[in-house]
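[09:14] KT: can someone run the structure on this one? pasting the chain below
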Amino acid sequence: MLKLTSKIIIKGKLFCHTGLRIGGNKSSLEIGGVDLNIIKDARGVPYLPGSSLKGKLRSLLAKPNGWESIKMDGQIVTDLFGGSGGKDSKLITRLFVRDATLDVAKFNEDFPDKNKRDFEYSETKTENVINRSTGKAQHPRTIERVPAGAVFNFEMMLDIYENDNLKKFLETLTNAFELLEYDYLGGHGSRGSGKVKIYSLELKGKKWANNELTDMNLNEYTEMFKKFAEPINEKVQA
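[09:31] RB: done, structure tokens below
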């Protein structure tokens, strides 16, 4: 069994430049209601499932290499994100991505007029199919999105085992973050949704030594996160 040597915590913020759609489940059909809703917690607050964010990052790392399935992923990605599962899988998952939570206080500050909202923490967008013969819109449907300008707080945990290359893992994550900013998160990315920005990244670590966890000095690794470290003007860009 591999020995765990340290645990790294990566915290940051995710800013929505455009509306963000992470699909949810609908228990009933409402006349005149939303056709496609978003996922929310028990309080009715939208959130980003850790599985969605982790899966998107892994998928983006696969594209430049042409890896069409998880079984084709390179060693560094497999070591970082884990195997494909199953009873025969012995691969260790090192990266754990928690559900990202909406910054409710900031949301209420930036969107103070609840009467202008379609829902408490979301908006609706109507999409149509264009008839190529007539040029007319038809078959409208209404989708729900988190509005542009919303901010989510996210946290990731990285387990490091003996002989692991922490620098390589962090470089890989940095590449994934940058790819995400040039891509989209969630659904309907080809139709305007899901442009995001990652910022205010913080890196902290604890190492296991002498049967206790002690603080790590990670200064040598923080330079690679510098491009994501500074706060941004948290306003929707025109």
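[09:33] KT: thanks! Residues 27-32 have pLDDT under 50 and may be disordered.
[09:34] RB: yep, looked fine to me
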